[in-house]
Amino acid sequence: MTPLVDGFGRTHTYVRIAVTDRCNCRCMYCMPPGGIAPRPKGDLLTFDEIARVASICAGMGVTKIRLTGGEPLVRRDLPVLVRLLRGIPGIETVSMTTNGVLLAENARVLRDAGLASVNVSLDTLRPERFERITGRPGPDGVVAGIDTALEAGLDPVKVNMVVMGGVNDDELPDFVEFARHRPVEVRFIEFMPFRENGWAPAGMVPQAAMQERLARRYRLQPMNGGPGGKVRGFAVEGAAGSVGFIAPMSDHFCRACDRLRLTADGAVKPCLFDGGEVRLRDALRTGAGDDTVAAMIRSAVLAKPAGHPPAAALAAAGNRSMIDIGG
Ligand code: 5AD
Ligand code: SF4
Question: Ligand 2 atom closest to Cα of 31?
């Protein structure tokens, strides 16, 4: 087996698979204001096509899969896909990133199908704000989803908060309190620019500033992971859970990037911020053999850039929107 190594010596063991481009939320940092036209269903890879790509990737050393969207739980029969993926030799963990809206009713079935863990997006604990940020009522349903995931034994359960200056950055302590009572890992994420998502330099609260604000009230003890890793985790005294920071803007973790993305319409996209992609779908549908598909995936990986440009340049560049790429 030849591992998936790119031009900068990074080995790829992790694939994020978008299973749909549809979503039942309209998060302001993700979805352009006019929405996006969903692709015709026939453009999406079928479960069998996804499993085939995953198994070809596993043959090149991929061990971890994360299901994303759009919102993965709006794709019908998702547990069937989880089971298929878990059955692939070499795939050790299948996890999912979700907005949590449909999680309460799905957590147990997913766990039984072999889902290991879940990341839930939750950007505010205040109902009015929740509606303004996501376009739907909450956050009670999402919190119920998080609690059901914990009860079902999904482990870990992580909570993703995109921190936006002037929008929700006054809630950092509330999220620490959220982690006090639940064994979740809350991750404060720097707001990233994507097409038409309202990003402005002032909306980006750098990790250092978040940490400084929290340090006034809490003693945060650094946990393992340290520099090089993508998440910097901290224990909070007396809390069941922990907090962490994801700083794509102020800290380039690109040099340790081990991930690839497969878009819902079957393109391999090695970098979130780079337009480069290799479309597999038509090849899959016209009888390409596994070796051909593997070579296409390798070529995508070889074209992966070293890293992304600074924030302001990104904001100006015409990337796909986040909803279109798949979180
Ligand atoms: N900036 C930072 N994180 C984002 N996400 C989506 N859009 C952005 C953005 N503009 C993250 C959210 C969500 C996951 C799917 O992607 O944390 O949980
Ligand atoms: Fe949907 Fe997630 Fe985008 Fe929000 S961030 S609109 S929940 S895909």
Answer: 6
For strands 93-98 and 64-68, give the pairing.
parallel
- Helix/strand/coil percent split, the chain, to 5: 35, 20, 45
What local confidence, expressed as pLDDT, does residue 21 receive?
Answer: 94
Those residues of the chain that have pLDDT short of 50 are 226-228
Ligand with an atom nearest the CA of residue 20: 2
Read off the pLDDT of residues 239-289 as tens digits, 9 standing for 90 and up. 999 999 999 888 777 888 999 999 999 999 999 888 899 999 999 999 999
Query: For a substitution probing ligand 2, which of 22, 24, 27 has the most ligand atoms within 8 Å of its CB?
Result: 27
CA distance 146 to 100: 7
SS in 3 state form for 126-183?
CHHHHHHHHCCCCCHHHHHHHHHHHHHCCCCEEEEEEEECCCCHHHHHHHHHHHHHCC
User: Any idea where the domains of the chain sit in the sequence?
Assistant: 4-158+254-325
Residue list, ligand 1 pocket, CB within 6 Å = 29-30, 97, 121, 160, 162, 189, 191-192, 194, 197, 322, 327
Q: Which amino acid residue places its CA nearest to atom 18 of ligand 1?
A: 121
For the stretch 144-173, pLDDT in tens is 999 999 999 999 999 999 999 999 999 999
pTM of the model: 0.93
CATH number of 4-158+254-325: 3.20.20.70
